[in-house]
Amino acid sequence: ARVTLRQLLDDAAEHGYGIPAFNVSTMEQVIAVMEAARACDAPAIVQASRRARRYAGDIMLARMIDAAVETYPDIPLCVHQDHGNDEETCASALQAGFTSVMMDGSLREDGRTPADYAYNVAVTRRVVDLAHRAGASVEGELGLVGSLEGLENEAEDGHGAEDALSPEQVLTDPDEAVRFVRETKVDALAIAVGTSHGAYKFSRKPDGAILAMQVIKEINRRMPAMHLVMHASSSVPRELQDLINRHGGEMPQTWGVPVEEIQLGIRYGVRKVNIDTDCRMAMTGEIRRVLAQSPGELDPRRYLGPARAAMARLCRDRYEAFGAAGRA
Ligand code: G3H
Ligand code: 13P
Ligand code: ZN
Known about the structure:
Bound molecules: glyceraldehyde-3-phosphate, 1,3-dihydroxyacetonephosphate, zinc ion
Helix content: 40-55%
Largest sheet: 8 strands, parallel, barrel
Strand content: 5-15%
Structural class: alpha/beta
Strand order of the largest sheet: 1-2-3-4-5-6-7-8
CATH class: Alpha Beta
Distance between the termini: 10 Å
Number of helices: 14
Mean pLDDT: 95
CATH architecture: Alpha-Beta Barrel
Radius of gyration: 19 Å
Shape: globular
Number of strands: 8
CATH topology: TIM Barrel
Order of helices and strands: HEHEHHEHEHEHHHEHEHHEHH
Number of domains: 1
CATH superfamily: Aldolase class I
Low-confidence stretches: 149-162
């Protein structure tokens, strides 16, 4: 059944677990998330970025979600707009049947320029009014998570995004977070702890100097009831890097956010954990393997099927690790 983000996160807070939110652009990805949720008896959050909506088309995407609700009636499903950049994006998502929207006012409408606090509060509050009237939830963001557009312009290996700005400019300020929540009435708050989107987050295994988990602890101390969201939380598993590279891929060595760090975040109020890159890697690794091993293969089902199964395994691992298994 279709549920709001607020409904899912309230239950997650009550029982102390986190829910992975997986990005989807294709039918295979929607099915992978739902199969994993069913296998684990876990609630599901599928989220679509603006690019995902453009790729699939709003009507196609909305009907795939309708189909997921009908095919998996026992799985609570939240359909979420990832990184909405303005009111119009959030309004059209609600129109398309999304039950939750992210208004990312940490950046200006172009999705790359850091915004000031006043702009962020004003635009987020307008979206909260709009969404709450429609019975939907809102996620806001305070602090800077390495931007996608920025990353696309990085050097090939992407490393260095984390060095560009000072920690004070990037990390969420706990005092400001309290004010932001009071002034916007968001249902969930995305915070910045030093990670960035995509595969190339860190050039070594992140430790306390790189990943600012104390920010989460401090925000949780001041607002124990607030649902926190960790973005850019792919773990970028070594096995998937190796699988891709063994079959013709070229990924320079890289580190993501370790699952143990996410588990620590969940102890301090993180309830939604955004994962896209790991899913992309699981699918790409499997497609590369099948095509390398069967160069004569022409049937997309013979590589998209295994890719879908690989993504479902990844999703199951995250449901288990975050404590969402058995919570549907
Ligand atoms: O937040 C970002 C997601 O990884 C979506 O990426 O804009 O390429 O669909 P995308
Ligand atoms: P990753 O690139 O780490 O998967 O992050 C996804 C994300 O934060 C989507 O909003
Ligand atoms: Zn994100």
